[in-house]
Inverse folding.
């Protein structure tokens, strides 16, 4: 299995079926307690500090995710304290214990470099074997990260439960073989990709966790962005959120809503934001871009300014960053590629009332806790699944998209003793 | 409102300059100076355009190079109403691009002055490649595309743009009542017999020539035997690439049905947003910017002009339009700069080779909502 992990190209359905069968046997025969998984993850996080992986986008998030301090509370919340040791817990006259589903198939999207790893860690915590299809563009990065796991997981506890595969997305026979071989699936990506995977012939017992396409926005109240002392640090936070994953992640802010207030000058804010974006660009310059994204960015700038003489924009001569400033209470069509619409509004509540299930994350910067409470409540009512501090929009955590990450990949077995 | 005299004279002067013979730096300087005047005029005429130009990171008044001037992406011409610098009553014609199914076409408005310069620009360029003589003109299209009324599509504009070289015009395709197009073989053979000894001009869209003329004639084993024909074609290769028809295969196929040498088959690049400018291939397979236009190829990562030998996004520049702001247009095409000075064919200035359309991004992932909420028919959220 370890060798397969480093050479993921598969060519026949049999390779997938056989690999999955091995994973299933290992998952069944060699139980692994979540506490043990956490120990390996902790070492993995430390190993990822090396120079080789430093350039992988999102690696800091991944390292944080793998820490015991992050995962233990999640396991505790999702499955209870006894789950950590892999034991039974009493539940009235019965007892309950989590068991792995068996083999979990992972279909990560191609836009977030660390997503294959995030996805498989969820299923590994449930004791499952993992069959992971890596999008072509992420093979090298995934191998780099998995190599670090190999180095710390000397006895192969986790690596033997992992089968990483890569094949062209148009290979229906391999997609079908993968679906038929799993007991559960974690499916991530755009609408079309997700619906294609859902149509595959999964066994009727397979449990599917689907994380489909969403978008995200941020919002600041007037008190916060009008505060000169704090404004630049908030601008750095939103710049960081914009920068990660080229704004192609579901948690990427596409629009920042600024609630207007007396004495608040949008020009001053835009100046600070421009500086923050320039700093981010200096620290993390692009080394490549798809020409179509460049075209899209140029078009977004032009259409915004041509559409309304009152619209304004600040952008670099390159496609590096773009601020589109105007008024409006709805999220405009996202451009991605570090193109942030900054919209002035009279009342953030009005903006949030327009949200629907499309919006995954709302990044907030609001001075009054009471006000924030109200906005969070309204966001929840309007389909938003995550309300977080601006600057932490990508922080991967459970629940994601409103659902648990580990619980869906285990079965809770109920045992009522026969002698009672 | 007519074009300011200073601008009109500047355009005339560029139109009269040696087409491919100017010193590249001199040409750049005169184009930049004229384009600055045109930009200022366009800003006066269209407040939306002025808003765009005013937000450009470089003030165009002080721009040192032509590449620093504010350019519009080609998609901006899909707006409705079209971006115009003239009043509606001054519009003589609206040109539309050949958008593929489901896409919105570009629309550009021409006043009398721009329309006249469009014809002059195209004629001057084509003359340099095929000579000034008038000759029989075989249009590989249907007569419906010759219509001079109302909106004119890219095909019609290209067909009409070559009309000044014609002594007579014959369309060799016909459309039946159901709208199906087929070759009018009888008419074609009649013309071929009549024109055997003559210099002849033929024009059609690339895929139309291949599917409606070359393939049917080849199937029937017919050669037209017009050795002195010049076959001009334009309109992109996308459809033919899907059928694995390369440029060489195309040229060979066309030459074999006409019974001419393959070097008489000339591909040219043009777009309605870049009125009056076409870029035919020279005998070395390169395209050239004429005295009244320029091509900037930009690195997609930096948007700076690339060095010779490198590929990037094509920006076309032209001083000819004054009825719409099509002076500096960033296209969705890719090209490679061959040289900035001179081509072995003797033409001076920028030479380049077209390298296809900008490849559409496949990876959209979990942040891609275009197939759900925004329904724009682009990007598919693929896992690849």
């Amino acid at each position: 299995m370890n060798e397969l992990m480093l050479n993921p190209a598969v060519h026949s359905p049999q390779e997938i079926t056989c690999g999955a069968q091995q994973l299933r046997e290992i998952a069944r025969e060699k139980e692994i307690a979540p506490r043990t998984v956490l120990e390996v993850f902790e070492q993995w996080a430390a190993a990822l500090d090396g120079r080789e992986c430093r350039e992988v986008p999102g690696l800091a998030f991944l390292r944080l995710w793998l820490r015991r301090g992050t995962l233990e509370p999640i396991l505790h919340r999702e499955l209870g304290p006894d789950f950590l040791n892999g034991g039974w817990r009493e539940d009235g006259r019965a007892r309950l214990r989590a068991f792995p589903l068996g083999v979990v198939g992972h279909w990560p999207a191609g836009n977030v470099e660390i997503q294959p790893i995030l996805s498989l860690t969820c299923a590994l915590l449930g004791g499952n074997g993992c069959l992971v299809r890596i999008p072509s563009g992420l093979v090298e990065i995934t191998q780099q990260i998995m190599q670090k796991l190999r180095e710390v997981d000397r006895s192969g506890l986790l690596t033997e439960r992992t089968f990483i595969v890569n094949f062209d997305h148009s290979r229906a026979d391999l997609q079908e073989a993968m679906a038929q071989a799993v007991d559960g699936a974690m499916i991530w990506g755009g609408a079309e990709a997700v619906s294609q995977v859902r149509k595959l012939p999964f066994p009727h017992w397979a449990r599917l966790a689907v994380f489909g396409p969403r978008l995200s926005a941020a919002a600041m109240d007037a008190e916060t962005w009008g505060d000169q002392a704090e404004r630049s640090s908030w601008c750095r936070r939103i710049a960081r959120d914009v920068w990660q994953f080229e704004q192609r992640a579901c948690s990427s802010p596409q629009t920042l809503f600024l609630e207007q207030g007396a004495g608040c000058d949008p020009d001053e804010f835009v100046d600070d934001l421009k500086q923050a974006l320039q700093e981010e660009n200096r620290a993390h310059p692009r080394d490549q871009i798809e020409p179509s994204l460049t075209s899209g960015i140029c078009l977004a700038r032009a259409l915004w300014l041509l559409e309304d003489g009152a619209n304004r924009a600040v952008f670099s001569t390159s496609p590096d960053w773009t601020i589109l400033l105007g008024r409006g209470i709805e999220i405009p069509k996202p451009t991605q590629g570090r193109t942030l619409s900054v919209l002035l509004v009279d009342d953030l509540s009005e903006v949030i009332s327009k949200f629907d299930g499309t919006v995954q994350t709302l990044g907030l910067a609001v001075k009054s806790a009471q006000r924030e409470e109200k906005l969070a409540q309204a966001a929840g009512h309007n389909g938003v699944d995550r309300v977080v501090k601006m600057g932490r929009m990508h922080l991967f955590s459970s629940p994601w998209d409103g659902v648990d990450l580990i619980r869906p990949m285990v079965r809770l077995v109920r045992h009522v003793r026969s002698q009672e | 409102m007519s074009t300011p005299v200073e601008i009109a004279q500047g355009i005339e002067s560029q139109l009269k300059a040696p087409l491919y013979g100017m010193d590249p730096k001199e040409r750049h300087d005169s184009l930049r100076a004229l384009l600055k005047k045109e930009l200022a005029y366009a800003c006066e005429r269209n407040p939306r355009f002025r808003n765009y130009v005013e937000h450009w990171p470089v003030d165009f008044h002080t721009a040192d190079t032509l590449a620093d001037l504010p350019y519009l992406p080609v998609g901006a011409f899909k707006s409705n109403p079209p971006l115009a610098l003239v009043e509606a009553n001054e519009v003589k014609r609206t040109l539309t691009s050949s958008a593929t199914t489901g896409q919105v076409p570009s629309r550009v408005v021409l006043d009398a002055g721009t329309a006249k310069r469009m014809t002059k620009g195209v004629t001057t360029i084509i003359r340099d490649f095929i000579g000034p003589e008038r000759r029989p003109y075989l249009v590989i299209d249907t007569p419906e595309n010759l219509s001079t009324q109302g909106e004119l599509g890219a095909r019609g504009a290209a067909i009409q743009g070559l009309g000044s070289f014609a002594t007579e015009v014959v369309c060799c395709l016909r459309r039946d009542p159901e709208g199906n197009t087929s070759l009018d073989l009888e008419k074609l053979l009649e013309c071929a017999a009549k024109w055997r000894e003559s210099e002849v001009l033929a024009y059609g869209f690339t895929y139309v020539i291949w599917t409606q003329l070359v393939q049917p004639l080849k199937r029937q084993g017919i050669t037209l035997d017009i050795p002195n024909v010049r076959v001009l074609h334009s309109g992109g290769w996308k459809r033919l690439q899907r059928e694995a028809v390369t440029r060489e295969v195309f040229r060979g196929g066309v030459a074999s049905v006409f019974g001419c040498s393959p070097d008489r088959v000339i591909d040219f690049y043009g777009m309605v947003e870049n009125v009056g400018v076409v870029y035919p291939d020279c005998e070395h397979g390169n395209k050239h910017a004429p005295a009244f236009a320029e091509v900037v190829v930009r690195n997609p990562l930096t948007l700076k002009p690339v060095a010779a030998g490198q590929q990037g996004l094509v920006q076309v520049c032209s001083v000819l339009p004054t009825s719409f702001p099509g002076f500096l247009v960033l296209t969705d095409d890719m090209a490679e700069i061959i040289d900035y000075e001179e081509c072995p064919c003797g033409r001076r200035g920028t030479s380049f080779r077209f390298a296809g359309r900008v490849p559409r991004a496949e990876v959209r992932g979990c942040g891609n909502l275009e197939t759900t909420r925004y329904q724009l028919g682009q990007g598919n959220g693929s896992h690849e």
